[in-house]
Amino acid sequence: MRAMLKTLFSSNQPPLSAVELRLLKQAERVLQSEVDELPSSPCISVCRMTEETGLCEGCFRTLDEITGWGHRAPQAKRDVWRLIALRLQARTQA
């Protein structure tokens, strides 16, 4: 995770927006938190699905990840946060 974050913040990568950076920092906090701590939702109330990617513009989750959030176990929620971080990383490499 640290290597991925280092790559995201290197100067030769396209910059992320302020919203994306905030989401990335939140992902870092969640992924480094205690295993028994319940991860927070990545929702920022910008609920628009992007047709090209199938992801929400605000939280970078799929519809299945959004609708199933409340029923996921804490580790499954961390897995979604990990996917969000990877999706943000992919945006900087596009």
* Envelope shape: globular
Structural class: mainly alpha
What would you report as the Rg, rounded to the nearest angstrom?
A: 13 Å
The number of strands is: 0
Measured as a percent range, the helix fraction is 40-55%
Percentage of residues in strands: under 5%
Low-confidence stretches: none
Question: Given the structure, what is the number of helices?
Answer: 4
What is the terminal-to-terminal distance?
A: 19 Å
Order of helices and strands: HHHH
Mean of all residue-level pLDDT scores: 87
Describe the protein in words.
- The protein has 94 residues and is mostly helical.
- Helix 1 packs parallel to helix 4 and helix 2 packs antiparallel against helix 4.
- The protein is globular.
- The mean pLDDT is 87.
What attributes characterize this protein structure?
94 residues, mainly alpha, 0% strand
Give a summary of the structure in a few sentences.
The protein is mainly α.
List the helices and strands and how they pair.
Blueprint: H1 2-8, H2 18-32, H3 63-67, H4 74-93
Helix pairs in contact: 1-4, 2-4
